[in-house]
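Q: How would the C-alpha cells look for this protein?
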Amino acid sequence: MKDNQQIKPVISESFDKVTFEMRGMQDLVLDMTKLHPDIIKRAACVGMAQVRIIDAAAVSRADADGNVRSAGEMLTLKRERMEALIDHYMTGTAEWTQKRAAGGGAAKDTSGITLQAMRRVWPDKDCEGLAFKLETKRGISRKEAYAEFAKTKEVAAAIAAIKAERSTMSADDLLDEMEGGE
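A: Here is the predicted structure in C-alpha cell form.
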C-alpha cells in the first residue's frame, strides 16, 4: 500500500474475491461467487465503461510538443483510443491489454502541431472544421485527416518552421559536442 493510500483493492488471481486492504483496520472481502448474476453483469458493464474504456483512453491536455489541445481535439483522440479498446475486446480476446503494433506501437499523435501549422497556413479558416470535413469525406479518423494535411507542402513547411522555432540547440553546438568540444 502506498504511503498516501488508505484503501487498496486486491483482486484474487482466480477473480473470485476482491480484498479491500484498509490501513489500520481489518480487511474487507467481497466474495464474487456469492453475488447474484445480474449484479456481476452490471459490475462488469460499469467496470468496462468507466474504468477500462473511458479511463484507459485518457488523453493529456497537452500534446507531445506542449501545445494545449482544444476540447474537440481531446474528444476526438479519446474516441479513437476508446474505439481501439472496444475493437480489441470485441474480438473475443482474453487479453486485458492491447498488444502494441509492430514498429513501436501506435502512430505518434501529430495533430497538435499539425493544427497549429494549418492555422498559420490558413489563418482565416476553421482548421478543425477542415480536418472534420476531410475525415467525413474520406471516412478516415481525425488523426488520419491531420496526417493528410501534414503531407501538404504548405503545412509541412509550417510544421518545420514551428519545430525550428522550438529548437534549443544549434547545429554547430551539436557538431562541437560530437567532436569532443565543450
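Residues 7 and 72 are 36 Å apart (CA to CA).

The longest strand covers residues 17-22.

Upvote if useful.
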